[in-house]
Amino acid sequence: MAFVLKGLLQKKIIKQNIKYTGVGILIGICLSLVITVIGNNDFTFRRLFLNILFSTFITLSISNIFSLFQKYIDNFTRSFWKYIVLYYICNLLGMVLGVEICYVIISFIYDFPYELLNHVQEYKFNSVIVLIAGTIMLFYLLQKRNSENVLKAKEADLIRINQLKTQAELQALQSKINPHFLYNALNAITSLIHEDPDKAEDMTIKLSKLFRYSINSQQENFCSLKEEIDILNTYLAIEKVRFGNRINFDIQTDETLDHTQFPRFLLQPLVENALKHGLKDSFEDGFLAVKVFKKEHHINISVIDNGVPFPDELIAGYGLQSTFDKLKLLYPNKHEIEMINQPIKQIKITIPLSA
């Protein structure tokens, strides 16, 4: 991985230097033409060569020094004026370095001794050119920087909007699940009022407890697995009053997951769906199990029953569809849902393991 990143970095540097070599050659040609026209001098290839040599190595020196400046200093420099000062310092250092490199090359080509940092006239002349060209480039960089900041701000706003949208959708789903369950529970209470008033009263008390918990936690999308199981047990206590001994319930969880963050009200709609559609006609020996276990970096959830098998073309009901929608919002492209009939009927859900 490090080798690949290094290769990409090297390619980026090579592309940058090729680009600025072209810029330097162009500046050298333009400078030769201007000197020839304004100074009424004869055009010579020697002057053209020297102008291209100086402009190319000065441009490359400035661009590479400035690249280092951006990489190591820009993150720590928030002040606009500090940025300007450091930019021109990079230009000055690059100009001096470029001039010295050119004189080293010229000393070899024309066979005269090289003297380090002893080219005052070249510094004066090239500093004027660098000041003009550098200022033009500065305006371009500032404009580019401003555009990037505006784009980043828009991207941040879009992320916040999407987060708010997701949060609103999750809260809307939560508000759908609770009234759906309330409707079913109240129907059950109504049917028991005349048959068994004591059971109806017991169901009403448990329903009140469940909804008190739900209302107090309405804005939260996650809870600990232990809290989710407590919610489920309260719901099952209500359903046990209705079903009596017709259905046996079994809940198994991995104790190491007790304090793991888990989607709130995920299990209750799945269990409700199994009771309503799979086990509604069971008169005896009904069985419903909920299993939650950890497997590597995921949580496996199974809701198992021995009721009516899933149809080949399942049309998800109100509560079940809300649960599926919730999973899409909480774990986009990171969860799995399986509807299995053989060898045992179950809904199997896999979600990422969170802290």
Structure overview:
It is a single chain. This protein has 355 residues and is α+β, with helices and mostly antiparallel strands. It has 2 domains: 2-118, no CATH class; 158-352, Histidine kinase-like ATPase, C-terminal domain (Heat Shock Protein 90), CATH 3.30.565.10. 66% of the residues lie in helices and 12% in strands. It contains 8 helices and 7 strands, in the order αααααβαββαββαββ. The protein has helices at 2-38, 45-72, 80-110, 120-195, 197-216, 225-243, 267-278, 318-330, and strands spanning 222-224, 247-253, 261-263, 286-295, 298-305, 336-340, 346-352. The strands form 2 sheets. The chain has a 5-stranded mixed beta sheet with strand order 2-4-5-7-6. It has a two-stranded antiparallel sheet with strand order 1-3. A hairpin with a 5-residue loop joins β6 (336-340) and β7 (346-352). α1 packs across α2 (45-72), α4 (120-195) packs antiparallel against α5 and α4 (120-195) packs antiparallel against α8.
What's a quick, concise take on this entry?
This protein has helices at 2-38, 45-72, 80-110, 120-195, 197-216, 225-243, 267-278, 318-330, and strands spanning 222-224, 247-253, 261-263, 286-295, 298-305, 336-340, 346-352.
